[in-house]
Amino acid sequence: MLNFLLLMLVPVLIAIGTLLAFKGKVAYWEFFAQIGVLALVVAASLGIAYESRTTDTEIWNGQVTSKKRVQVHCRHSYECNCYYTEDCSGSGTSRSCSTTKHCSTCYEHSYDVDWDIHASTGEGTSIDTIDRQGLDMPPRWGRAYVGEPWASKHNYTNYILANPDSVLLGTKGDMQRFGKLIPKYPDGIYDYYYNNPVINMGVPNVDYVAWNWLIRDINKTLGPQKQVHIIVILVPTNDRAYMLALRDAWVGGKKNDVDVVIGSEDGNTIGFADVMSWSTNKALQVTLKDRIEGSYLTDKDAIVAAINENVSHDFKRMHMKDMKWLMRSFQPSQTAMIIIFILATLISIGISVWAVLADVNENRYRY
Q1: Distance of alpha carbon 31 from alpha carbon 24, whole angstroms
Q2: Most CB contacts within 10 A, which of 34, 110, 214, 224?
Q3: Regarding beta strands 257-263 and 229-235, do their DSSP bridges make them parallel or antiparallel, or are they unpaired?
Q4: Burial of residue 246, with CB atoms counted within 10 A of its CB: 0-12 exposed, 13-18 middle, 19 or more buried
Q5: Considering the domain 164-322, what is its CATH architecture?
Q6: How many angstroms separate the CA atoms of 261 and 250, rounded?
Q7: Global confidence as pTM
């Protein structure tokens, strides 16, 4: 509310000044219409600023439940059976005619074929066809199978982004020192429904493909059950301070995340392990960290089993509505405030000029 009032102050003063300076030329309805327009513009602009700051993405996990070859209406139409009619009007030298084209719609095929895949998340996709009608089976559809891991990206409102300092308490992470070891959040979807939930920042002797499929396999089951997305970050350092830097860079992760960090310099011994999650059951971080630190990185099956067991038992997803209180302390960026102020001021000046000139023109026409 305070931001709204501050942004309205100068534009409203312009409107009041115009009303007083050109008394009798600016009608009261024009003045109140000007205030109404300004209020709508400022409120809408602040709403956009709030929305742009708090819009975030998360990954939903599931598995392929079916794949079907579906006959659909042909998508390839063309004009056919065309004829022309001539419409004339007038007579003599003033006679004019126009020609109108009339056509039916025909289709290249009696039907087309879609190659569809459906998932347990309630979503689906259609694999691109390799021929115009879609009769030939696409190899990508042939490789898909029931039970295959499925991932999709979705937008949600992340109130934590409105004021992260209020909830990310503790020592600030040294993002500059660990800069090269901090990955971009892995929310990319490729090849229709694949996501890579494992990130290796340079740990040697890691079978990345095996790790990736093992975590995908957990996500496909626990995703629907627990509304969770598990990410594993392998980093070649034994410095526990890395977790603080990652936490700051990822703003604590997404609301459905369990981000497991494993530090190992040699690809065998584990220097440290840590877990970042908004789970309301904090036992998850403690028990899972202790279990991983008691293992060797080469024993990936045991580590993945520990992740599966602890997340299944202890993860309780946070509801983002519980963080809505952060919006009370939200402040748009300085750039956004300046842009909204300039926009509202220019609109106020424009409406003031219009109101005065409209009265001048009206009097001119009257005389």
Answers
A1: 12
A2: 34
A3: parallel
A4: buried
A5: Roll (3.10)
A6: 13
A7: 0.79
